[in-house]
Amino acid sequence: MKQQLFTTTAAAVVLAALYAAPAMAQEGETTEADSGGIADIVVTATRRSEKMQDVPVTVQALGAEQLAERGITNFDQLLTELPQVHAGGRGPGQKTVSIRGLSLSQVAIQTSAVAGASPTVAIYLDDASVSVPGRNLDVYVTDLARVEVLEGPQGTLFGASAEGGAIRYITNKPNFSKFQAGFTIAGASTPGHAYSGSATGYINIPIIEGTLAFRATAFVDRQGGYIDNVYGTYQMPLVGRNGDGTVAFSLPVGSTRPVINNAPYARNDFNPATYTGGRVSLSWSPAPDWTITVQDMYQTLDAEGVFQYDPTLGDLKVMRFAPDTNHDEFNQVQWSVEGKLGGLDLVYTGSYLDRKVDQKFDYTRYSSVGPYAPYYICSYPGYATCATPRMSYIDKSRSNRFTQEFRIATPADKRVRMQAGVYYDRAKVFADGVWYYEGAAVQGYKGQPAGGGDIITNYIRPDGGVYFNDAERGESQFALFGEASIDITSKLTLTAGIRWYSQETSLRGSVNCGGLITKTGVLPNGHVCGGGNYAVSLAGKSPATEKGSTPKVTLSYKPNDDMLFYATFSEGYRPGGFNRRGGATRDPTFFIPFTYQSDSVKNYEFGWKMQFANNTVRWNGSAFLIDWTGIPVSIYSPRISNSTFVLNGPDARIKGITTDLVWRATPDFTITGNLAFNASKLTDYASTPVGFQPQPGDGPLALTFVPLGSPLALAPRWQGGVRFRYEHENTAGTTFFAQLGGQFVGTSFTSTIKPQNFKLPGYAQFDASTGFKREGWTAELFVANLTDKRAISYISQSDNINLTSTIRPRTIGLRLGYNY
After folding, report:
1. Contact at 8 Å (CB) between 802 and 167?
2. Which residues, in sequence order, are CB contacts of 296 under 8 Å at separation 6+?
3. Cβ contacts of residue 375 below 8 Å, gap of 6+?
């Protein structure tokens, strides 16, 4: 119903915009560029509106005009413009994000909700945190004022899970004085693969000029598939092997093992993704200097297939034996009150996020590696006759987040200025994931309700659902923060801030599994796996409270209006958590801790921001050193437990440089570039158990961390990009433009855990576009992945087979837009 509503709204907005007339600029950037200089971008990285060049923080910002010029609509496209931001995972909305190389490994999506550490990067939609472990919120990029990326720990102003940095999507707010409307439609072809198409529109209505305004945007974007699910057959092997090469199971010679095929699911271009949704906001100014705004955003992301391929089968080909679908839906409401009182700036913001995931993907290959696979799908005892090995993972998880913040700030033009605030955040993830074995249903295993002392989601899972999580993971935070700046001289400023927090984490529910007893019928209280009743195993441990503080100190020097230098020390943190099945294990020498602790980051940074030649050249950059200690990492070790657990592992150090340059060589020709250097390494095994430290004679598949000195995950040593843009207006009022962009990514690795550690070769990719603008209209021909590079961006084992992620093949399209 909601999807139909927003699709209809999108069409209505587009039709309304067709009746519009003269062009009007989008919000978010100043018009300084019209005089031949580089346009300023106003950011809120310090919780105040300031020009980016005046902020002593390493921040990258893409304004509305840049986002439109580069055709950025989703997170993957955004990554190409951000050299210190990386992500790994299954596909859209299923990734773990890192900044400055703060990543040891990527947890599988099926265990991220209950056995994944909190993110190292905070993702914000305006002033509201929307972060979830393992599943980045892939906000569709349209009608945004800008996207800000704050590098380095932001714990003072942005709290927990911002130890690597923060990514902020800043939406356009209602305009009290101008009627605005516009639309963009696009169609694209990926030669040899499916077509893509999109339509977006927005409208702004000043209902009562200066007092009441309404803004709405809507979008639908179907991105055609490019991965082929080829026909094939599969048979469960006689001998299964774990990821470390050890034997997982052995079937008797001559056992009956059926051969299955994937005929019902084989098709070309089977991985389309569709973004649908919209955003509405209403602003009211009841008095001068006071504004109340309410905003609601709804989005669905529907993806089919997988966004990875198996190189052993050929280019962009994979072989899947069960359905792969993902419906990712969120609704976020946020509200704010801003005003002035007695010379003070007052801001109150609040938000509520509700996100639901309904996903199913092929898990058949687990029957090649799972120690308990024969127990469920073969006759017991003896395993003489096995049923179909077709398996799926079914995820119906949901999450919500409620935040409130109140800030007060003194005037920004005073010699001594301060801001302080109070913050509350309550987040819950409800994990409802079922490992479904079709053969187990044939063997008679009945579906069960959840057991344990706390039942989170009460229903009977499907027959053959032999293992499932029923859990509620909670995090809540109360914090007080403050920051003060004093101008020691007219050029030298000292800023110091601190955040005090009280963090509570909890885990309730159970992990459930099938057994011979579940063949006799549905058990009224389910069948909890050993140690899987959290009400018992975590009694007295969950919930847990942690209190602490994170400081930040910056000394900035501004010799003139065109130069800024700054040195910063800052800290960041993220909360610890719980292990589902702590205690004694299959390995008598190893004990799984019931809890894991918070990690911490200390960041030392020097930065600069410069403008030259009448503001036609801008050069920004920063050099940093980060010490990262007590890092939690998720581990799946069948010799210990068939449930993933989290350990506090090694320490790491990261040294790096980020720099970007903009040169407006002529009023018509602009060159932009960025470059990132990242030297990361493990420095100490610290609290890592001896069994997970490399030992002499270990093979490449030994389940241990990589040697000390090895780089961290998804942290290329070098990465950069360059873009050339020419734009010229003729005497008839038509502006012609053309641009060419390129991105280079150096060699990196997928993990710091040996069996999961794959080398990702470096690559370069290019894009180009050309078109014209006249009287509000824009027409553009574009090409993405110009050289059709098959870049390897990630390699995953989460489906028990090595699958390779890549960028979309060469795509050629036409985009038409109009702004009134």
Report:
1. no
2. 279, 280, 281, 331, 332, 333, 334
3. none
Residue type, 18: L
The Cα–Cα gap between 406 and 336 comes to 10
Helix (H, G, I), strand (E, B) or coil at 785: coil
d(CA 385, CA 387): 7
Spatial contact of 111 and 644, defined as CB atoms under 8 Å apart: yes
Q: What are phi and psi of 651, to 5 degrees?
A: -105, 160
Distances (CA, A) of 792 to 572, 634, 706, 765: 31, 24, 21, 11
* Strand-pair category, 617-629 with 645-648: unpaired
Instruction: Report the number of secondary-structure helices (H) and strands (E) in the chain.
Output: 8, 50
Using CA atoms, how far residue 6 sits from 3, 12, 130, 273, in Å, is: 5, 10, 21, 17
- pLDDT recorded at residue 21: 32
Beta strands in 630-734 (DSSP E): 632-635, 645-648, 651-666, 669-684, 718-729
Instruction: State the Cα–Cα distance between residues 740 and 767, nearest whole angstrom.
Output: 6
**pLDDT reported for residue 23:** 34
Radius of gyration of the chain (CA): 27
Low-confidence ranges of the chain (pLDDT < 70): 1-35
Please state, in angstroms and rounded to a whole number, the distance separating the CA atoms of residues 317 and 325.
17
Q: Hey, how many other C-beta atoms are within 10 angstroms of the C-beta on 536?
A: 12
Report pLDDT for 637.
86
Instruction: Go through the chain and tell me how many residues it has.
Output: 820
Q: Alpha helices of 19-132 — where are they, by DSSP H?
A: 64-69, 75-79, 112-115
